[in-house]
Amino acid sequence: METPSSPLDCRGLTPPQAAVRIRQAVSASAAGTAPLSVVLDEVCAPERVSTALRGAAHRVRYVPAAALGPAPPPAAAADPAPGGAEPWWQRPDLRYADGRLHLGDTDVDELASRVGTPAYVLSAARVRENARRLSDAMASSGLDHRIHYAVKANRSPALLAHLRTADACGVDVCSAGELSHVQSCGFPPEAVSFTGTSLTGRDIALLARHPGVRVNPDSLASLDALGRACPGREVGLRINPGAGTGYQGDDRLNYSGAPATKFGVYPDRLGEASDIAARWGMRIVRLHFHVGCGYLDGQLPEWERALDAAAALLDRFPDLREVNIGGGLGVPHTAADRPLDLDRWASAVARRFAGLGLRVAVEPGDYLVKDAGLLLTEVAYVERRRDVLFAGLDAGFNLAMEPVFYGMPCEPVAAVPRWDEGEETYTVVGDVNEALDVWASGHSMPRLRPGDRVALINAGGYAASMRSDHCLRGQAADVLLIE
Ligand SMILES: Cc1ncc(COP(=O)(O)O)c(C=O)c1O
Questions:
Q1: Quick check: CB of 412 below 6 Å from ligand 1?
Q2: Predicted confidence (pLDDT) at residue 342 exceeds the cutoff of 70
């Protein structure tokens, strides 16, 4: 962290990223204090950064790089793990260096000392990288595309403001609250799509006040209510293709499998949807489907069946300009999970929807944020009960519910592993008085002691956003790392 007197180092950042970093530093320092000294790269023109800073520009003074000394050395290479085996989750920006876990360039144990535990920590660089990878794969497959980040996965205001400033993507919201929230984080109506369920009169009234928002009603009732409130509006229609898939084929995460679900209009009622749209002078310009969450490579054949079912309906909508294929792209949660082959995924989309004059929108939540986040915790106790060795953390399942709800684990990882003390097999539990409050069972880790920090990985998606304060244990810091 910069001391107030040392310049803020923004080398390596683009102008929008530098502006976000500077704004954070300015707002963290008292108004009316001395100007903030900032160092930029040669590629980063001060005028462009100042324009992006708007009202905060006058509090910044740009100083030559010499004021900082040499540029920081590149991040250290990952440590070879003992015995040569690399943890399955290790990657260039989440790795052990000098025996300490780093997210990007941040030593997470040191961070925990500064901000306390539990703490959600999210790497903005990883989120941007995930979005870029997805966009590149779609572009390489010849898809005219648009990304709407599904903010239900993580609505951190700092993240949303960062994504907006970096112009990384649009957003998808599912409620009036989320709509107001993304607007307060800088997203204009044109950058927002709305795909909600069980819409009330209040939701419809708010949508009517924002004609630029792309709404995708998911029921005949919502379509009718929207038409009544704003006749003549262009709309999307969320359909249910009757085929879907989710993480490792788990039915709980399949939104459009064999049993009827609450999501979307089934093909047998599309005629009624067209009649409702005609009655209110609305044109259905977007076909939307979201068929499940967390699918990986092994689920692609099922997912392609959903694509086929949706593609077969295109002819029913003469005014279509866009197909929105929803989100649901998953990330590995265990060593056994095979990651999604993004090129294979994008080719499957292109085979159905490229070359038809249609834009393809995608609405990922988890894929952008989940593996960018950690939940930092501290070991409260280690104690054997019968034949089980328990390690109790200062964070419970209420801070990341997906492991318990959906069997998508957040694997516990030592922040500073005591590799020289050997491994133990732990049942890692939380601090909530519920029997299901278990992070991992029979989990092999380097020996733990009270006070050690443990990072729960894959906590960037649906952890903070779904948290509860059950047992009044819900307090946690929120940190966005912008490097
Ligand atoms: C309509 C819609 N779009 C997008 C998403 C994001 O899903 P995911 O985070 O799995 O990508 C969801 C999640 O439930 C959704 O309901």
A1: no
A2: yes
